[in-house]
Specification:
405 residues, alpha+beta, Rossmann fold, Immunoglobulin-like, 7 helices
Length: 405
Amino acid sequence: MKLAWPGAALVALATAGLLEKSAVAADVPIAVLGIEATEAPDALAAGLTDALRQRVTATKGYRLVPGRDLVEVKLVFSCPDEAPSCMAQAGKSLGASKLIFGSVKKSVGDSFLVTLKLLDANRGIVDAFVAEQISKAQSSGAAVRGPVQKWFATLTGQGGAGIVKVRSDVIGGAVTLDGNPSGVMGTDDMVLSGITPGKHEIIITKSGYEPARKEVNVASGETATVDLKMTRSASAAPPVISPPAATDDRPRLNGPQPVTRDTGGGITPLKLATWGVFLAGAGSIAAGVWFGTNVQSINNDLDEFRRFQCSRPPFMLCDSKGEPARPLNKDQVAYVKAKKDDGQRLELYQYVSYGVGGALLLTSGYLFYKAYVAEDEPHASTGRKLALVPLLTPTEAGASAVVRF
């Protein structure tokens, strides 16, 4: 009888702990940022957004967090490409641990393609992904509630969705699922969860490689693995440099003698080319620095227009200094967009200038060796020891070298 009281106490504590965990798990705050219309009626996007919010409110275990729409969030938090890390920061500012957002666009005939994502704001990753077509009859009134209920169940793991695991032998390839961007390949496999059962197409693309594509059949509640190998495209292969022909360096008793190089120290065309390439490379690097300074100036100009959710009551919008601020008006939003477009263009110019300048400086180093160093070396062998050719493509800059021993 003496052991009954401690046992009962332990049972009571365990029961209380389970009830507490259940209560915590049953209150998941979700912010439905809504759906952005792309070549589709705005009314359809608004109807889908309202239906999603009603579904969250009506589902036990989830709490709807009032928030802004997707377009406003991307402008306020500077998330034009819906990057998970940036969207996660927006979710934390709204006080939501989960975010639901997506897009709707015109598809074949009278149908529309709806894409939805469920993002975990605490981990900064997309937990589930849905891409499905709806007919015109399903896009209005109460008819839209059926698809929305199924999508929400799939996103939250209640609809028996499948998982696709993507493998590739190339790092940095862009992965799309049924034409929708899903991420970039890293060193590990990419896991796409919340995939609706049925056939789907996976495509991986990267500059310098041929696109790799494959169809996969996803079963309900199961994991399908897709292994895609990528091959380099013929146009991206570096130029092949043939080894220089061997020369006979033995002294000749008869016939013409080898022509020796002028070592008088005068200005030769090769020396002029050396300094010309060097100055061009230095100028390109300087241009990259100038572009970078302009990008930094644009960022400084945009600081006063940045808005964040205040971390202290009354939880209104704050500026970059943490002071309460009003939302941006239409003119300010247009100004911010124009500035961002200018900054992205200048940033591209900056990287191109750095790439071209680096290739030119590397080439000038080789020319300097040939013009000032190689001519002073003994000429026991007239064969070329090193061949260096600059390699420039629309996305890469560098040099290709062949060394002969």
